[in-house]
Amino acid sequence: MSSSAHDSRLRIPALIAVLGLVLAACGPAATSPGTSPADGSPPAGSPDAGSPDAGSPGAGRLFMLSTQFEPITEAEGMRNTILADFDGDVDFQPQLGGPFSDALNAQHQAGSGQIDIAGGLHGDFAAFDPEVFADLSDLAGELAELGIPENFLELGRLGTDKQIYIPWMQATYIMAARSEALEHLPEGADINSLTWQQVTEWGSNITDATGGQRLGFPARLGEPGGLIHRFFQGYAYPSFTGGVNTTFRSQEAVEMWEWLQDTWQYVNPQATSYSHMQEPLQTGEVWVAWDHTSRLIEALKADPENMVAFPSPSGPSGLGFMPVLAGLAIPATAPNPDGARDLIRYLLRPETQVVTLQTNAFFPVVEGADPGELAPEIQLELDAVSKQSAADNTVPSLLPVGLGEFGGEYTKAFHDSFNAIILSAGDPADVLEREAANLQRVLDQAEAACWPPDPPSDGVCQVQ
Amino acid sequence: MRVGRLGWAPYALLLPSLAFLAFFFLMPMVQAFGLGFQDRAGNWSLASIQRMLGDVQFRDALFTTSALVVFVIPIQFVLAMSMALIVNSRLAGAGLWLYVYALPLGISELAAGIIWFSIFTETGWLNSVLQQFGLIDSPFLFLGHGNTFWIILAIVLAEAWRATAIIMIILVAGLQSIPRDYLEAADVYGATTWQKVRRVILPMLRPALQVALILRTILAFQVFATVIAIAGASATVLAAEAYRWYGLYRDVHVAASYAGLILLLSLAATILFLWLLPTQEEQLA
């Protein structure tokens, strides 16, 4: 990986985001073709996952469940490209967050399991009892020479003294735009250091010139859905208020929501059906979009000449941004833990990390990954990510920490605020008053202390 | 006497299917119902039901679900009845239509939703066609937020397109069980086509209609993937909320409350149809 990428080292990452695209038709029961979460029977496609097959090469047979690489193109990239050189037989099955945790918890409770290795975001792992996973401290020691940042490893311990997951790869959220939008940039605006107010002007200029509403946010709520709650938690709130929970109903928060109400008239009204902004960017329904790096990459790839990627804008309190860290864990009930360790060693190799970057656009966590010539779309994102984390006014956010099973309801407070204030044109102060109570209830139930960008708290984090 | 000779055999033969129903339907249903009456800690309480009723999405979900039931079912019945009559007519090639009509049945609910989304979206086929013919200058945002009418219409169309064939097949089966004699007798007395439909076919079709109505209404209360695909966050239904509470907000108890409500509504609709459309045997009894 180039040196500029090291500048983008992410200090405090975490995320419960779950990627999703084409999904089986009929809800949870039908979404788990590869796993049998509840009954503990062997997952389809890995009939002998319970016993390492002596006939298989190298590490033997492995069953990997992952909340990452859930879109079919990413899953195929994992199976056919990233895992291509691994000396073993890996059945890679992506899964949404809900069934993912159900499967691991069920196998833990049953005392026997079929999952050898679990891949997920920091937030996915934070929701488990630490006993579900094996201690990987020795492996972390062994891999130390790869140069995984110590703060990443610390996140992987989840506040315990055991290494629950090994950092795997990282990502973040940035902006992307079609080149025809650039001529409508507000006068004097620098695309690499925009303010959110300038984004509003930008959208207004485009609407004035073309009549179309061309700003876009991934505002499809659900799973699979868009990640707009991350926009609030890691971008809008920190940029406007400098905090998230403590400032949830502050005057600054009211101003943030009023800004978004004002901006929403320039946002494509179909935003509520967007889960990945790369699609509307490609069709031209949206010209300027905010989203996760892996959800913008296809648009940049399809037409790198006519797309730009740039850092998220700043608000009155700075440039709020949220790094995302994914990790690999081995369930305590894994039938083939040695093979799983080999797989972790393989995925953390600098060469594999580069292939992962080039194939699925997730950035390395190790040093010495030299990607050589990068595909143009990756280079575009890498530059934007580097500029974003190198800005001098950043307000980095950590994603929900210590919420455990209440992580989803935490998200709901932001979804409901968005629904009521933006989609139903409610009064921000009134809605925030109501949702602040919901937020506080979630924090109380989870007994969660404040996390950055909120200042540390004694005891449970309090909405001010 | 006959029963005596058969002894326990009929009951033994019923046992496997009863056991299947008990294990895979009754038990999970009771369990799910129970979950709805517990709080997160697992204590018996009405807290989850109160959370569902107090949820900001609840009224929207109930409204959209009811609107779909009210609009989709009559449209589908008129369509399915016409389709069934065509298939069952003695016109040449009429049988072919059965296969044409049944084609959408092979497509999953989600795929159907995505197809209709790609028709109605801003850069979709409908806008392209309208622009091609110069009927509109710029694309119309059918699925834009706040466009409730068009969103519900798109869902109704998608559902009608996708699931009318299920009803048609039940009705075709019902039509084929009507003895020809009755229709010939009606012909002899000089009945018009409309009179035959109204006075002979519909009354004889009652059992099939009852089954189709019950089935379709239950499916309408469960509608989920088409709504998710077409409306995203712009409209929500009960089943979508159940799914969000399970998958996204991670509270199985509130999800179970939603599922229980869907069950109750389906049950109420079933009883209503049994009462409104009694079959001959039931009338005699």
Question: Explain this structure to me?
Answer:
The complex is a heterodimer of chains A (464) and B (285). Chain A has 464 residues and is of the alpha/beta class. Chain A has two domains: 3-172 and 323-372, 3-Layer(aba) Sandwich (D-Maltodextrin-Binding Protein, domain 2), CATH 3.40.190.10; 173-321 and 396-446, D-Maltodextrin-Binding Protein, domain 2 (3-Layer(aba) Sandwich), CATH 3.40.190.10. Helices cover 39% and strands 11% of the residues of chain A. A five-stranded mixed sheet of chain A has the order 2-1-3-10-4, sandwiched between helices. Chain A is globular. The model of chain A is unreliable at 1-56 (pLDDT under 50). Chain B has 285 residues and is mainly alpha-helical. Helix content of chain B is 76%, strand content 0%. The longest helix of chain B has 31 residues, at 58-88. The relative contact order of chain B is 0.13. The interface between A and B is large, with 42 and 36 residues.
- Would you tell me the structural class of the helices and strands of chain A? alpha/beta
CATH top level of the largest domain in chain A is Alpha Beta
Share in helix of chain A: 25-40%
CATH architecture of the largest domain in chain A: 3-Layer(aba) Sandwich
Backbone CA Rg of chain A: 22 Å
The poorly predicted ranges of chain A are 1-56
Instruction: Please bin the fraction of helical residues of chain B.
Output: over 70%
Number of DSSP strand runs of chain B: 0
**What is the CATH superfamily of chain B?**
MetI-like
Largest sheet of chain B: none
Envelope shape of chain A: globular
Task: Report the CATH topology name of the largest domain in chain A.
Answer: D-Maltodextrin-Binding Protein, domain 2
The biggest beta sheet of chain A reads: 5 strands, mixed
CATH architecture of chain B: Orthogonal Bundle
- The secondary-structure class of chain B comes to mainly alpha
